[in-house]
Amino acid sequence: MKDRKPDAPLESIGEWDDDVLRRYPAEKKAQDFRDYEHASPGVREFYRLNHTRQTYAFVQEKRARFLPRQQRKMGVWQAVEFLNTLVDQSDPDTELSQIEHLLQTAEAIRRDGHPRWFILTGLMHDLGKILCLFGEPQWAVVGDTFPLGCQFSADIVFAEFFAENPDAQHPVYQTKYGVYAPGGGLENVCMSWGHDEYLYHVVRDFLPAEGLAMIRYHSFYAAHRHGAYDYLMNAEDRSLLRWVRAFNPYDLYTKSSQRPDIAALTPYYQELIAEFFPDEIAW
Ligand SMILES: [Fe+2]
Ligand SMILES: [Fe+2]
Question: I want to staple 228 with a disulfide (CB 3.0 to 4.6 A). Which of 72, 155, 246, 261 is the partner?
Fold first, then answer.
């Protein structure tokens, strides 16, 4: 690790996304799912912070702060541009900017002939990363997400770091169902805090349930890749999870060095946004 801040072990938040891609390569190699050993020291430290500090109480605090959505008012395209001002230590010559990742994802969905709400979901799915611009640390913005208030699944990457999580000592939080009813539905489950959960609350009045599930659960790899936590889900969650799985390859496997022509694509996406969203929404 170079001169990274103790709270910011990743060179950029994109380093987490890149590591997810390393774990789930397009060409499936059998042991890669469990290949944590080759994670960089920064990624490892990132997960240590994430898994020890994301507690049930921590998420309640973040919800109280961000769910009233009093940070600012702005339009969706404005949020895309705002996210793109995120400056970190990543190398601009080799790494995609945030806007390029969003456009590559959306364009791949569009090329495959999917509905317009699906394309828009692709464009928007990472806008919750603006939490970084509100001063939130990396481990509270990105990373695989997981339920709190019940047992940590062994299917979560670097699950061993949960040993140091205060919730691991809690008598109820480490039972199988914890504070939840069996099959009670993900809607009622407190997920670890980050860009997924935050954005879901920002856009929940504007997109169809399938798009909202893609946004809310796209980093819930333990569930959508490993089938964990099925016992918390209801029938609707299981059918929505199919859409989350349909979305995931567009997020992971569309990163290309061929950069999208942002200026040429802007009018199309502004029109698409206007179809679903008012001029400004509360963030
Ligand atoms: Fe994401
Ligand atoms: Fe993404």
Answer: 155
